């Protein structure tokens, strides 16, 4: 299980999540941050500091938010 960054992050890019991630699994994309679902240890540190409440546990995603997990998987696919 992993955390997923959703739509409130688009264009926001506050970045507090980067500073607290103990495994450095968050990278900046073109218009938002992404969490690598293969590296995330599900600690929740990023979610607790996100100023726009954009970070959600994978299993709590709504159907409208599920594309953000797919977007993150594609972002890290070739890294």
Indicate the proportion of strand residues.
15-25%
Shape: globular
Classify the fold: give the CATH topology: Alpha-Beta Plaits
The proportion of residues forming helix, as a percent range, comes to 25-40%
Low-confidence stretches: none
| Major sheet strand order | 1-4
If classified by CATH, what would the architecture be? 2-Layer Sandwich
Overall structural class, as computed from helix and strand content, comes to alpha+beta
Oligomer class: single chain
Q: What is the arithmetic mean of pLDDT?
A: 95
Largest sheet, strands/sense/barrel: 2 strands, antiparallel
Task: Provide the CATH top-level class.
Answer: Alpha Beta
Rg, alpha carbons: 11 Å
Number of strands: 4
Question: Structurally, how many domains make up the residues?
Answer: 1
* Number of continuous helical runs: 3
SSE order, one letter for each helix or strand? EHEEHEH
Taking the alpha carbons of the first and last residues, their distance comes to: 20 Å
Function: Ferredoxins are iron-sulfur proteins that transfer electrons in a wide variety of metabolic reactions.
Pfam family, one: Fer4
Protein name: Ferredoxin
Organism: Salirhabdus euzebyi
């Amino acid at each position: 299980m992993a955390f997923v960054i959703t739509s409130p992050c688009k264009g926001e890019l506050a970045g507090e999540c980067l500073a607290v991630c103990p495994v450095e699994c968050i990278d900046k994309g073109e218009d938002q941050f992404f969490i690598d679902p293969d590296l995330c240890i599900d600690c929740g540190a990023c979610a607790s500091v996100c100023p726009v409440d954009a970070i959600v546990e994978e299993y709590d995603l709504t159907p409208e938010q599920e594309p953000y997990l797919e977007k993150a998987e594609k972002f890290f696919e070739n890294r």
